[in-house]
Amino acid sequence: MEVRRPDAVLAGLTDPDGPHYSGLATHADAAAPYPVVMAHLPPLGDLLTGARPGGIGETCAMIIVVCGVYLIYRNYIKWQLPVAMILTAAVVAALAPIHLTANPESLGAWRMFPVAIEGPDVGITYVFCQLLSCELLLAAFFFATEMTSRPITTGGQVIFAMGCGLIGMVLKLYVDMPIPFYAAVLIMNTFSLRLDSIWHPWHSIQRDPEPSAARAD
What we know:
By secondary structure, this protein is mainly α.
């Protein structure tokens, strides 16, 4: 039996060609059952421990987070950047519309606020699946924090991270590409200098001291 990557399974929720599922965890129409997305996803425990197919180095969320926390503890990176990137991606996943259908005969419809479609418990699980099924954590802790291309100021890093999370999750949901969050970081890298210029701390301009009077011989 073919083992599908979780991100490939979730892609069926935003496929422009038509809906693949009737819901996240429950059928919308019991009389005409249609697949639900979470029946085809590994449990969250497998997503956390890396027991799923995926890219090299991106599957074990627990190890990535532990290593990222260590980098923060040693002051190699600022915590604001990865946290802002992950939270922004989570908000987009919770609000961005998905494509569902009630039964195989219907065309389906785009549904807003997936986090509330079948209750907060199912919605939050769905958001975690979106976050843990891709390279987001690896990009947030290691790729986006690369010191030669990210902004230097804390405020600049927060805006940079929010842009990465927003662009990355939109690309993941609606664009067929294998590494959306890496692409998002590369896009935001082009604005690093501008973000630093906006958030650079203001320093008062020190006037040159007046020249001292010439000493009398």
